[in-house]
Amino acid sequence: MAGPLSLASGASSPTARPTVRPSIGDRLRGIDWFFVGASVIVAIWALWLFVLAQHDWLAGEVRNHVSTDFAAFWSAGRMVVSGEAAFVYDQARQGAVVREALGPVARAHEYLNPPPFLFVVAPLGLLGYVAAKVAWLAATLAAFLVVARRIEPHPRIVLAALAVPVVFLNVVSGQNGLLTAAIVGAALVLLPARPWLGGILIGALVIKPQLAVLFPFLLAASGNWRAFAGAALSASALMLASLLAFGPETWAGFLHSFAEAGGTVLGDGRTGWGKVQSLFGVLRHLDVAPALAWSIQAAWGVAIAILACLAWARPLPSDLKAAVAAVAIVLVQPYVFIYDEAMLAVAMAFWWRLARAEGAGRGEIALLLLAMLCLIATMMTRAHLGYAAALLVGAVVAGRLVVAWPDRTSASTSARPSS
């Protein structure tokens, strides 16, 4: 159907035709629905933050005995700068720091990140709680948006990134999902042209190593040994530096707390299976036996990893490989919380870059919109729809992969000189 007509006025001309008014359908099709939808979502997030701010959001949640993630980061940083790094994994000592600063009923989640992450949170300990939280939110959100703009320089990518529900969730909770998504996104941007630097950024994921578990296999599959070496070197350097800076007691405390947390989250599910947005979490929520749930998760993770490695071994577009990596990181692991799914925004940014060059199908857009609704529903209800969102984004990326795979393979075969 033709688009809205815009004819120049020609009343004085004997051949002039009356102006044809566009139909309601044409007017609706002429609206930039993406801009409208994203703007509405961002406005809702901004209004929500404003309401939270009226209720002392920045510090009131810990004062009112509601556990927060950022309080764990800040208290660990405060303990580092006060010379108590060896006790950051001691929940009693950590709780005392939070109560001293924020009141007798304040508390925080346990600090569970590896010792290299203390280099990140230590500067926060130099500030008061509210100032530290503002600085943390500003820095991590800015890093995430800068990387999103670097992935896709389209002027509306920032609006699109802000509209992703888990971005708002990370801002509210003060979690590190935006930071890790920024690291992965920047690494994937740099790998094709600057593999050494991209590898160094991958090594920085030692601050949250479960997000890096797939990269050694992807880099090996693609033969990117410079990036592989850069990742190994930076990860080793960060671990050694943390050992020297914070002492072996800190590492011992981390290993002990890690084992306990694994039992709490993935063992008896005391944190609630609704928080674990993985296939394993879904199965355990459905009362599937632990051994069977682990077996299914392992088989699924291996299958996703093999598919991702095969994609990275092929001469496919680097943007498509990056989208594959970003979504596979979420799908392969059993330990995924909703805030970690900020990684899906990285996959969608690379998809946008592909879509601008090759076109976007209506089915793709519908699946991505459905994924956003699933994330919103997860934030509201703690259902396992966050995992459904990852599957939907994965389906969009897989569709691109199916289309590109034979084309690239046949192209490389036809371009090969005959013997």
Jot down its keywords.
20 helices; disordered N terminus; mainly alpha; 419 residues; disordered C terminus
Q: Span between N and C termini? A: 52 Å
Overall pLDDT, averaged?
Answer: 83
Compute the number of helices: 20
Helix content: 55-70%
Largest sheet: none
Spatial shape = globular
Radius of gyration: 24 Å
Unreliable residue stretches: 1-13, 62-67, 408-419
Return the domain count. 1
- Total E-strand runs: 0
Give, in order, the helices and strands. Answer: HHHHHHHHHHHHHHHHHHHH
Instruction: Determine the strand fraction and express it as a percent band.
Output: under 5%
Find the structural class using helix and strand composition: mainly alpha
Subcellular location: Cell membrane
Membrane topology: Multi-pass membrane protein
GO molecular function: hexosyltransferase activity
Family: Belongs to the glycosyltransferase 87 family.
Summarize the structure.
The protein has 419 residues and is mostly helical. The chain contains 20 helices and no strands. It is globular.
Structural notes for this entry:
This protein has 20 helices and no strands. The model is unreliable at 1-13, 62-67 and 408-419 (pLDDT under 50). Helices cover 69% and strands 0% of the residues. 43% of the residues are buried. The chain is an all-alpha fold. α12 packs parallel to α16 (290-313). It has one domain (33-262, 272-402). The protein starts with 23 loop residues before the first helix and ends with a helix. It is globular, with a radius of gyration of 24 Å. The chain crosses the membrane at residues 31-51, 117-145, 157-190, 196-220, 227-247, 291-313, 320-339, 359-378, 385-405. Residues 1-16 have a biased composition (Low complexity). InterPro entries: GT87. GO terms for molecular function: hexosyltransferase activity. It is found in: Cell membrane.
